[in-house]
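User: Fold this; tokens only.

Assistant: Input:
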Amino acid sequence: MKRVVVGMSGGVDSSVAALLLRDAGHEVHGVTMKIYSGKPAEGPVPDSCYGPGEAGDIQEAAGVCARLGIPHIVVDLSAEYRSLVLDYARDEYQSGRTPNPCVLCNGRVKFGLLLERLAAEGLPFDLFATGHYCRVTQIPQTGRWAIRAAENPRKDQSYFLCMLTQEQLSRVTFPLGDKTKPQVREIARQAGLANHARAESQDFAAGGYRAVLEQPDAPGPIVDQDGAVIGEHRGVWGYTVGQRKGLGVGGGAPLYVTRIDASSNTVVAGPEKSLYHQELVTRGVNWASREEPSGPVRLDVKIRYRNPAVPATVEPLPGGSARVTFDEPQRAIARGQWAVFYEGDILVGGGVID
């Protein structure tokens, strides 16, 4: 038997993770991060990992823990979350980049500060668990820990954990790595958990990043590939490379966001063919499951969560960067997103697209 702390959001996935670990005979403690520091809710709000409905999520998690007969702890990390995640995301958007706050939150807050706070407050534990759909394994040849993709590739969430370190990986477990979402819901239903049919949560509350990051309108020009003004945008933070919907530019062939120049507050639009590129450079690369290679290696690379991992050559560069050269050009590579490297179903590492 081990003492396992389960990060609980109030949703069905983390609830079932706690249930499975309890039924396996472990001493389970539920812990929920309090991270919201924005304005109170005005009326009903959708489920989200960050938003004004947080108080209800905490209450839901506490109710699940009571149903399971396990302790529930709330840890206030709202100030740290704002500093490390929201401020970072705001700065990235203002720079014309498209960040992924979830990757940063997992590495620095959920699997970092939260566990440090629990240890500081006198709750020792053997393992930390979440409801992520992925698996953790130890590589026999090297002894290093690694994240493996979930058995169900459509639900795999390993991408979001690319910044975890060996120390973090050595103390985590993911009970849902071999489950499908319908299986998880059925387990919850049979256990009498009230949240068994709860809708999937979104990353941020309704109103988009503007409401969460408190971004004011900052209109500017939309220009074509030759620099001619063809429209007006509402603020560069609200656009990403590859976007077509919402440009407000009509007539002629479809146009897509091809580049964002934050220094001149300009959005550049062009035809779809201009979205394709064969190379990118990442910074802050974390080699999660292996030592940094001494030269180019063949890996599969994802440029965003919903994209498939595709063959590429990854070449380490000085200063913790890497050059990724794809076998085939990739559509809509966005600065600020994470490029995540895989070898088969093993997550090798990842870095921010620069």
